[in-house]
Protein: Proline dehydrogenase
Organism: Drosophila mojavensis
Amino acid sequence: MLRLADPILSDVRCLHSAAQDKQAQVSVADRTQHVQSKEEGVKPQRDPLDVSFNDPIAAFKSKTTWELARAYLVYMICSSEKIVEHNMTLLKIARNVLGSKLFVMLMKSTFYGHFVAGENRHTIVPTLERLRSFGVKPILDYSVEEDISQEEAEKREVESSVSSAGDNEKDAGALPQYHVDKSFADRRYKVSSARTYFYLNEATCERNMEIFIKCLEAVSGATFGTGITAIKLTALGRPQLLLQLSEVIMRTRKYMEALVGGQGNVLTHHKTIKDLEKYYASVGDNKDVQQFLKNVTSDKEGILHLFPWSGIVDEDSQLSETFRVPDPLTGQMRRLISQISPKEEEMFRNMIRRLNTIVKTAAELDVRIMVDAEQTYFQPAITRITLEMMRKYNKDKAIVFNTYQCYLRETFREVVTDLEQASRQNFYFGAKLVRGAYMEQERARAQALGYADPVNPSYEATTEMYHKTLAECLRRIKVLKDCGQDARKIGIMVASHNEDTVRFAIENMKSIGISPEDKVICFGQLLGMCDYITFPLGQAGYSAYKYIPYGPVEEVLPYLSRRAQENKGVLKKIKKEKRLLLSEIRRRLFRGQLFYTPKGNYVPI
């Protein structure tokens, strides 16, 4: 079996020596200065946009004919269910038969060459520069994944998801959704479009932080402040802590609902401190209750949070002491978080320190951070922490973006609530809207563990949720523009391979007077997928991104395997891409352009 070397002992191949880094940075800086000066002296090219996305020239003018032929071959292979189903086995057989050197050559000529930008942060620069010259910007992701067995994945997940003080799942008020279940401990189950991190120890989390920072440095050097790096919080800490924090958040909502009635996030109740004092009238003299009320986060419009989240993300608060609420009848303080040891408190502070380090570096390098969405049992904690990072760092522009999965029933309400928090606390709100990656797993887990299915009932309902959420964000952007405020207070990435959704966004932008130059809406697709959407958008002056994976060939095999699986699930899109590829190959053949050299004069918005 192909496996990564021990993550503690083996250095990631993209982390070169200081001397090599310095030399490469000088080279990139020189190239950056050259490209910038060139762009300043030349009026950027803009093409009209065919919103039917049926123009093969616009789709593939950034590709050589060889790259088109390779893409067609890759999509042909992805159309074979049997090959895709056993793709990882076939890759390993090919490696054993061909040997490492020939296998790497084969992969670079096929799947790896199509879906991956290069092996390290230096070899990907030509790809980034070519994308830029055709109006497309990068979201960088170091895509090395561990190829571990299901047994090993389950072992790691169970061990890292339970406190050393024991699992309090049977405690009064415990919510089963936010406790590990061995049947679903391998979080890769029925997930083909998202990477999974399994916790090993704190050293691997430190290593992941270093990798994310190297990604930031790489994207900064090649994109002049327009690039993005994607991160996952499960890469930076023990999953138990995210589970416990998520359970706290949901128990806090239930506590507030029981206290004041209604439903939803604490913020949505629009209650004041005086309202709370009335609920605690019979125990108002209790010092613990008075201290609790003193720590409640509120403004003139009401209560935002029952707990001082700013202290939690500033690395110094004790979780076990923070998450306590008063019983309205006795005044006795009840703990909402299950037992957590001093060592685990330290692990949580380490996780927050790592995230702070990454975001602070991003702000210094003028690169944006997109925090990926994960399973619903982690997501309340991920969103809460990400919003606090927005509050801390998004003071002058959107540096931190949160991801919202529109296949979930609560997405619209969650986005509206988070938009309200951003408005009331006066920070820039950044959101990436996706359909989502964990639908089958979420549905199966909810049924097995006996909690409400969090997933929309149909594909059409998910599309409606996506469009409804996007329309609300656009409406609020228009309100900001009409009031003379900075429209960039809200920034949205439409991360979708669905051309109907892209069209919906473009049509709504036009109808309410939002232009690409406002820089509030951008679009994103994966490298090697839906070029017929991304490149025409970028060449027409829209803010367009490609999600750029990179890493050594043999260590990105799990990523490539997932790309093959994902393509199998979107055969209609593949059919269109194949048709457009074949059309452009024939056009070049008949016009004697087989040796066409891509040369763009576009400047990303």
Q: What stands out?
A: The radius of gyration is 25 Å. Residues 18-41 form the longest helix (24 residues). The first strand starts at residue 136 and ends at 142. The CA atoms of residues 50 and 536 lie 8 Å apart.
